[in-house]
Amino acid sequence: MKRKYKRLETPRRILLGPGPSNVPEEVSRAMSLPILGHLDPAFLSIMEEVQEMLRAVFMTKNRLTLPVSGTGSAGMEAAFVNIVEPGDSVLVCVNGVFGLRMCDIVERLGGVLHKVEADWGKPIDIQQVRDELGRCDARVVAVVHAETSTGVLQPLEELSDIVHEKGALFIVDTVTSLSGAPLKIDTWNIDVCYSGTQKCLSCPPGLAPITFNDRALDKIARRSTPVRSWYLDMTMVQKYWGADRVYHHTAPINMIYALREALRLILEEGLEARWERHLKNHLALVEGLEELGLQLLVEKPYRIPMLNSVLVPEGVDEAIIRKRLLEEFSIEVGAGLGPLKGKILRIGIMGHSSTKENIEKLLSALKTILS
Ligand SMILES: Cc1ncc(COP(=O)(O)O)c(C=O)c1O
């Protein structure tokens, strides 16, 4: 039986939610380039470039730096499944959805979970981490740098010192922060770090850049049990991305083209200039929101510049605001999650979406809707 469908068309949106962000023309173009075989020498040299560019964006010299095939959650899973063995004590810092997700993964891996918690919208108190590390024997500490569910940016440097004083490994989620806010893997001594392509990298969802330093590789080498995921076992994935080129799985070729172009654009802009652009646009957005009488959930020093949690005024239905933004202005913003559902709007100004023009359009649309 034959069936006929219309050719696919999609509406054009201004993506100002918690991800994905809009994608530059060059990245879309790269995705539509002719496909190559995954062991074609031309593709292998693209893989080399992607790894080199990822090292530059992560600010690391780590040899094992590559994009995991899968979204940010695959990056999270890859970090934990390689490092954590059954019976390992792991301390997770929880102040939002993604910290909770880390806890779920640790327990599924048979790890012994310890938690330090903070209210949603507040940073983790590092004194509590110090105290908990004094009480438990955690060999791994994990934290979310930019907690997308609340808008909190967690300071990392001092936390990293505390973790290493105890000889533990430090795993950091930078799905929302990579290339949007300062992040220095080697200088800040982060052992394992993963991200996602669809936020500040402004590449479609589908890859999870990840990096492991020598301390982390040593922990993997000393495992007494095999990594519990075949697909995400970095010792095997690395053999494909490294000199051996041993087939593991078929790389998502065109996504890797897209990431290569997204990284090229980031490095051409310059990391410092990109961080600065995100900060400048965040400050302009906050000023405009305050003029409309809107306030942010998070205190100033801990705000993620790329993800703004805006408190919904008393008596206003945030679902209607989001619906009208989408239908009348083709602008997407995000809703609150968990305990913040109905209480906040999440406005993402990430990567290619972070422009003065987009902020002006959003503020003008909000003004119309709120009045
Ligand atoms: C901080 C953080 N970690 C992990 C993830 C999971 O990424 P993905 O939805 O791409 O699987 C997200 C997604 O929003 C995130 O914001």
State the domain count: 2
The CA-CA distance between the termini, in Å, is: 54 Å
Cα-atom Rg, whole angstroms? 21 Å
Bound molecules: pyridoxal-5'-phosphate
Strand content: 15-25%
Global shape: globular
Shape-level CATH architecture of the largest domain: 3-Layer(aba) Sandwich
Q: Please bin the fraction of helical residues.
A: 40-55%
Please tell me the overall pLDDT: 97
String of helices and strands: EHHEHEHEHEEEHEEEHHHHEHEEEH
Number of strands: 14
Strand order of the largest sheet: 2-10-9-8-5-3-4
Which structural category do the helix and sheet elements fall into? alpha/beta
Sketch the major β-sheet.
7 strands, mixed
Low-confidence stretches: none
The CATH topology of the largest domain turns out to be: Aspartate Aminotransferase, domain 2
Number of helices: 12
By CATH's scheme, which homologous superfamily of the largest domain applies? Answer: Type I PLP-dependent aspartate aminotransferase-like (Major domain)
CATH class of the largest domain: Alpha Beta
